[in-house]
Amino acid sequence: MKRRDFLKNAALGSIILGINPSMMAQQNFPDLAVIHGDSPSKITREAVASLGGIKRFVSKGDVVMLKANIGWDRTPEQAACTNPEVVGTLVELCLEGGAKEVKVMDNPCNPARRTYARSGIASSAKKAGATVFYPNKYRLRKMMLNGEWIKEWEVYSDFIEADKIINIPIAKIHSLSKLTMGMKNWLGALGGNRNQLHQNINAAMVDLSAFFKPCLTVLDAYRLLIRNGPQGGRLSDVRIYKTVVAGTDYVAVDTMGATFFSIKSEELPFLQLASQNGDGEVHLEKLRIEKRKV
Amino acid sequence: MRSFELKKERSKKYRIIRALRILSQFFFFSLFFFLLLRTRFPGEDYIGDVEVFFHFDPLLALTTLLASRVLFLSFVFSAITILLTFFLGRVVCGWVCPLGSLQQFFSFFFKKTKLLNPKRSKGNHTALKYYVLAFILISAIFTLDLVGIFDPLSLLYRSFTTSILPVSSSILSNFIGIFYRIRLLSLGDNLAQFFEAVDINDTFFQGFFIGMIFIGIILLNLFRERFWCRYLCPLGAFLGLVSRWNLLKLKIDPEKCTKCNLCTIHCQTQAYPFPNEEWKSSECIYCFTCSSICPTNAIGFSLKATPEEINKVNLSRRKLIFTIILGAVAAPFFRISPSKKRASEKLIRPPGALSEEKFLQKCVKCSECMKVCPTNALQPALTEAGPEGIWTPIVVPKVGYCEYYCSLCSQVCPTGAIRELTVEEKTKVKIGTAWIDKNRCIPWNLGDPCIVCEEHCPVSPKAIKLVKTEVKLPDGALKTPLTPFIDIESCIGCGICENKCPVVDNPAIYVTSVGESRSEKNQLLLEIIQTGKELA
């Protein structure tokens, strides 16, 4: 049966039977939720709810791996790491959705003990009920990534063994890829001499995103790092934007995020590459976007 | 020993005291070790007084005072040690000193395993430590601070930080791999997380060297019990001098004594309990071994209200004069090297370090800073700082870098050789300057993109700027990649660029000491240019 036929039948059936099957409802979810508001936690909840609720992404008994950006020895105000409230809220949501365990881990650029503590993410995620742990080199596995450019690389097996992966990047300026959001966030799931990937960073981002394929991406744009990325420093490098973007299409999420910096997808080679590969949509006008304030 | 077995009636009281002494040693050694392990990033910017052990050390207090002519207030605690020793003798050596406890433990171990057979020692070799002390004090008067090499606390801390802990952690972490292999996954996970949490720096250039010296000192116990304490320890010698009028005296009951010599044979520090009039109070560390093993309960200790002068330390006047001369010429002798003439490029000191001359007068080579450093950047120097600067801390960016928002090394330094800084103050300290080796840099040489150094630069605005530059490739083609340039004025020399450079063997960007805030001479930019002030 073709999809269109199925939809027709389902629609017909629902009219006849007078019920609204859940399959139908799922098709009506927006592609992107862009939620604006004062509370990082509320807008995160609202964004996930707009997409159909956490149960759409997390099943009962799942082990969920959250990939926050805990890369730098910076405080939340400096906007170099994902907002701790956003991370904490997602942990809560996953547990509410029936997840057996929610894990939070990132391989940072500065020592993990410092970035975990000073970003505020370790404490907020732990408080929400997550297992927070440091990257463990014994869990690195050389994996066949089968990308266009990266054929194999060392990956933390926690990401491979998890039932679901949710990506929670922060939106920042970056001198090489121009922006670092969801697709760049995957470098933190790698071991090895990952700095060498910078020689072809756009291809690396595309390959890694296609490999990890998160079931949901929640882009934290509560604070945008607009200068001196990717770690900033001064508070003047930060712009308060009070927004999160959520979606299943990570290319669309990054495309939306780029607009906050007034950067078009044509200016970002990694989005162009991903679009050519059919990994996602860069034409926002083709998407159903739900924008709301809470 | 067998012939006395019939009338063996050891003192219960002194056996209890001895047990208490062992308990006390165990407690203080554990405390020392606990504070050592706690000397790591505490999860916040500021760390408590984990270096407090050093402040009870009067030898460190005195030599840093002599060498630097500056009184460091935290050393007031050493007055407690001095008072205690003045009234009760070298109880601190026997009951508190963690290195002493370790010596005693290994002496005991070697004795039990029959590797060491204690005998009545003859000769006056115990005087050696007084010459070591004299040499250290005299050379300190001439501003040469060598105490860190010999001070028992520095020695122990340094050995643990740079060799014992790295070795233990490497042995123990092998178990993680074993656990994974036999599918005890959660055990492996937990152990791995534990190791990350205790945060042991495991890479030290001189770990092997310092570890061999430490093992050597332990093995000396094969020849004599507490060899180090007996013959070498300058702190023991110092406390021995302080204790000369102490009140706690050994008395042998001549009625009970069978002259078996057991006490003197087993004396930990060659203090000659028997005969009574030969007992050297300044050598006795009050371990109460003699009184608890005496088969006839003949030995006792009592507080005497009237202090009596005890047998003097047998120092030969000639040797003492010779030592003093040696101490006096040591300073110029140690300073033949050219380090005074020109700053060494590799001599990158931790942030807050005093100017080199003052730093060397205060640094006691204890490795507190190397233990607390979150990136393992601080390493014991070998030749970089000249002979007197051996084992003083230097930043080696190839191993680790100076974390931007961290001032922990300055907080734990027990002598103020690294001035205590707030995190805010620390971010403004320049410890060196980065330079680019264009012959090795990926964009400069291959024309390929790479911004790793710029990305990691923690300064805002960045001290590494990216500029589009035309680069000629071997085939003559032109490329215009973003190439790194360094803003020498805002670079703080933290070395993260060198540490993270993808050209791994010999990074294409590297830090040298020039421009360091602490030095007046080792400068590149003139003050008038930096501040924009005109000459007139």
Question: In summary, what is this structure?
Answer:
The complex is a heterodimer of chains A (294) and B (536). With 294 residues, chain A is of the alpha/beta class.
Task: Describe the protein in words.
- The complex is a heterodimer of chains A (294) and B (536).
- In chain A, strands 1, 2, 3, 4, 7, 8, 9, 10, 11 and 12 form a ten-stranded mixed beta sheet that branches.
- In chain A, strand 5 (140-144) and strand 6 (152-156) form a beta hairpin.
- Chain A is of the alpha/beta class.
- Chain A has a single domain (30-293), classed as LarA, N-terminal domain (Rossmann fold).
- Helix content of chain A is 33%, strand content 22%.
- Chain A has helices at 3-17, 22-27, 40-50, 84-96, 112-118, 121-128, 157-161, 201-212, 250-260, 269-276, and strands at residues 32-36, 63-68, 101-104, 131-132, 140-144, 152-156, 164-168, 170-174, 178-180, 216-225, 238-247, 289-293.
- Helices cover 43% and strands 7% of the residues of chain B.
- In chain B, strands 1-2 form a two-stranded antiparallel sheet.
- Residues 532-536 of chain B have low confidence and may be disordered.
- The chains are: A alpha/beta (294), B mainly alpha (536).
- The A-B interface holds A 73-74, 109-114, 117-118, 133-134, 136-139, 174-176, 193, 195-196, 198-201, 227-234, 237 and B 40-41, 43-44, 176-177, 180, 188-189, 192-193, 196-197, 199, 374-375, 403-406, 442, 448-452, 454-456, 458-462, 466, 482, 500-502, 504.
